[in-house]
Amino acid sequence: MLHSAGDKSLGELFGDLTQKFSTLVRQEVQLAKTEVTQNVSRLAQNAVKLVIGAVLAIFGLQALIAAVILLLAQSMSPWLAALVVGIGIIVIGGIVAMMGISAMKKASLAPQNTIETLKEDAQWAKDHVTTH
To answer: How far is CA 22 from the centre of its chain?
Structure first.
């Protein structure tokens, strides 16, 4: 016997609801997996760029450090010039490292879109159950 949507029994309605809820949960899990995968992939790509940039910067920085030491060595002892430059580099390196740590703490791998849609789904379900 065919029933219209308004003629469904309570059992059939609960069966439909269970099926739709199950589908929704599977879709949300898939969305979360996709979003986390994309976030991790983006993070890995940025890490590779960071490493390449850092290696190139190190080579250039070594040449500049040698130039600064040679320049200072004209007005002071070479060992003192190297010491002054070394201390300056340590201070700058510490500042840059703290900035990097701060930026990494702010980064999130959490699936923000999935979290938002789950909140929306929960609100929809709550509203739908309350009104019906």
So the answer is: 29
Residue 111's nearest CA partner among 23, 29, 22 is 29
Nearest-Å Rg of the Cα atoms of the chain is 30
Instruction: Give the Cα separation of 123 and 27 in Å (integer).
Output: 17
Domain parsing of the chain, residue ranges: 33-111
- Cα end-to-end span (Å), the chain: 25
| Tens of pLDDT, residues 97-109 | 999 999 888 877 7
Helix (H, G, I), strand (E, B) or coil at 75: coil
Q: Dump pLDDT digits (tens) for 11-32.
A: 888 888 889 888 988 998 898 8
